[in-house]
Design goal:
With 223 residues, this protein is of the alpha+beta class. The chain has 2 domains: 97 residues, Gyrase A, domain 2; 111 residues, 2,3-Dihydroxybiphenyl 1,2-Dioxygenase, domain 1 (Roll), CATH 3.10.180.10. Helices cover 26% and strands 28% of the residues. The protein has 6 helices and 13 strands. An 8-stranded mixed sheet has the order 7-8-9-6-10-13-12-11. Strands 1, 2, 3, 4 and 5 form a 5-stranded antiparallel sheet that branches. The longest helix has 16 residues.
Length: 223
């Protein structure tokens, strides 16, 4: 697993429908009804390379969400062809890609290296192990929980925070909406890859576009 896979995905032609989030490449396709979404899902399931690959399909009454992997660092070369094929099927069905509708919420739980407790969170949430530093909802409904290791010499501050991963062109509108709703910027050092905000009580949240923004934008680890 490395950054190469998701960077190649971003650089590839024919993947404009897709947003690279913390949880992998995702696309939302809008359709007029639940029945149309179900039909599209069935067609996507028949795309070569989809079955058995770990793809997550979510049907709603106005669309279908397709996630090609559950982690950004698990994107590989074959996902590019799958993404192109899924987009082609969506066009045949009259579906319209909605990059603004693509986002992911991740809960980050900070701890010193010897106190990281993924087993507890897996058990209490009914989640499953994914990578060494996170656990996921096997149904794909709940947020991923990321275990953030803090430097052992640093004090433990803001032991939990929320990461909101969005498309690169929708990060600043999401930021503006949060500020208009009373939020404040705590740290914009890594903007536009990431902004750290806080609500009036000081609870922190990161708006992150770093996977999707550019192959030149390095991942940010907010603390």
């Amino acid at each position: 697993m490395s950054e190469q896979g998701w960077q190649e995905f971003l650089a590839a032609e024919g993947t404009d429908d897709w947003v690279v989030l913390h949880g992998g490449a995702t696309a939302v396709f809008r359709v007029p009804s639940l029945g149309a979404a179900a039909e599209l899902a069935a067609a996507v399931a028949r795309v070569p390379g989809v079955e058995g690959s770990g793809v997550l399909l979510t049907i709603t009454d106005d669309g279908l969400s397709v996630r090609l992997s559950r982690g950004v660092f698990r994107l590989e070369e074959q996902h590019i062809d799958v993404a192109r094929a899924v987009s082609a099927v969506a066009r045949v069905h009259g579906a319209v890609a909605d990059r603004a509708g693509v986002h992911e919420v991740q809960l980050a739980i900070a701890a010193k290296p010897d106190q990281v407790d993924g087993g507890f969170w897996r058990a209490v949430l009914g989640y499953t192990q994914f990578d060494a530093d996170d656990v996921i909802d096997p149904l794909g409904h709940g947020s991923t929980v990321w275990m953030q290791e803090l430097n052992a010499d640093k004090p433990l501050r803001h032991a939990m925070h929320v990461d909101v991963s969005v498309a690169r062109e929708h990060a600043e509108p999401r930021l503006a909406a949060a500020l208009a709703a009373g939020g404040r910027i705590v740290d914009d050092t890594d903007a536009p890859g990431c902004w750290i905000l806080a609500d009036r009580a000081g609870n922190r949240v990161c708006i992150a576009s770093w996977p999707d923004r550019s192959v030149l934008t390095a991942p940010v680890v907010p603390q």
